[in-house]
Amino acid sequence: MGKNRHKPKQRNFLGKIILYVFIIPIVCAFLVYMNSFITRKWKGIGRFTRVFVEESGVRIESFDPRLKTGILFRLPGELEIMTLGGNGRWKINAMKQLESKYGADWARDSIADYLGISVTGGAKMGITDEIAWKRLKNAGHQQELEMNREADMIREIKDVDSEIYFVLGSNWPVYAGKWFLTTDLAAQDTRITIVNTTDTDGLGSHAARAAESAGLKVVMIINEEIGAEGCTVSGNSGENKKMTAIWMMDVYRCKWNEDGTLDSGDYTLRLGSDYRKWWLGEN
């Protein structure tokens, strides 16, 4: 018995080693992954689009999961954009510095709003999103594009001090509709009415640009000052399970509202004060 009196202690010590070295790290890694999965930005619906704000400038990459094709282009450093939150007009080459002041979300959303596109995320995303992104890039073909003046995507402006900068040209919406078209969304037979329920003019048009560049058909934009708080997507019974409704609820951060008076394929997107606060930077 004297020879075996230390074995229980040895087993207990070995058990602790296994617990701390193997089991706890595995459980922690699993919990981190599950949290990343639950909070993922891209749920497999629509394009996966990212805005990278870097010291060298801003680049945008986007993939269509159905076609397995992607695009990459860089914004001209002298392109001047109107930013969110009433923070004025700034050139792209200043966005990295401004990002440290106003935040990465502000920089990304300002660029997306000015271009009239929907964006999934920025440079930093969760584990699940990064895995999905790498799979799309590895499985697809990516084409590098350029915003150029010849096609009137951008237009040169010279101010009173003879300083030159660029703004979006008249043909940019056409190219945005080609570059950021989501094949599956464009194939849906849908008609969207956007209702701006706030007292801020222009919100409906901004929301429409992102929807149209993705391939959705916006048939009407209405202003109704009824003071709704949140954003809602309305449609007939069962329409909330369709791709268009899921995409709109995700992009505009809306709740579903069943409306039996709407025909199949018809949706109403109501923008409330939450959307206004995001646009004006009041969150």
From TrEMBL:
Keywords: Membrane, Transmembrane, Transmembrane helix. The keyword Membrane applies. It comes from the Bacteria. The chain crosses the membrane at residues 12-34. This is LytR/CpsA/Psr regulator C-terminal domain-containing protein.
